[in-house]
Amino acid sequence: MPDEIVQWLKASIMVQGPTFYMVGAFFPSWMVCLAGAIVIVLILRLIFIRTGLDDLLTFRLMTYTAMVVAIAFALALLIYGR
Fold it and tell me: 59 pLDDT exceeds 70?
């Protein structure tokens, strides 16, 4: 039983999230997904303003924040499969 626990702990310590090398440093994948989600939501906001949909939103900050989080999770799931 203790050997199984030790093996499980070793395996869990060695698991790392996906990272990549950019501009001389290793960046976690979630940071790139978050940046991409922010850009996508900014474009969506411009579309919402142009179509008049932005005026219908009551809680804009919460809505756009939730959109950023949802898109970042979707990007991470689609790109990295996590």
Answer: yes
Q: What is residue 26's three-state secondary structure? A: strand
DSSP code of residue 27: E
Query: Checking DSSP bridges between strand 25-28 and strand 19-22, what pairing results, if any?
Result: antiparallel
Query: How much is the pLDDT for 69?
Result: 96
Q: How many CA within 13 A on the CB side of residue 79?
A: 18
Residues 58 and 44: their CA atoms lie apart, in Å, by 16
Query: What backbone phi and psi angles, to 5 degrees, belong to 17?
Result: -75, 160
Residue 16 φ/ψ region, left for φ over 0, alpha for ψ in the -120 to 50 degree band, beta for the rest: beta
12-27 residue pLDDT tens: 555 566 676 666 667 7
Residue with tokens 């932005």: 54
Q: CA-CA distance, 37 to 70, in Å (whole number)?
A: 8
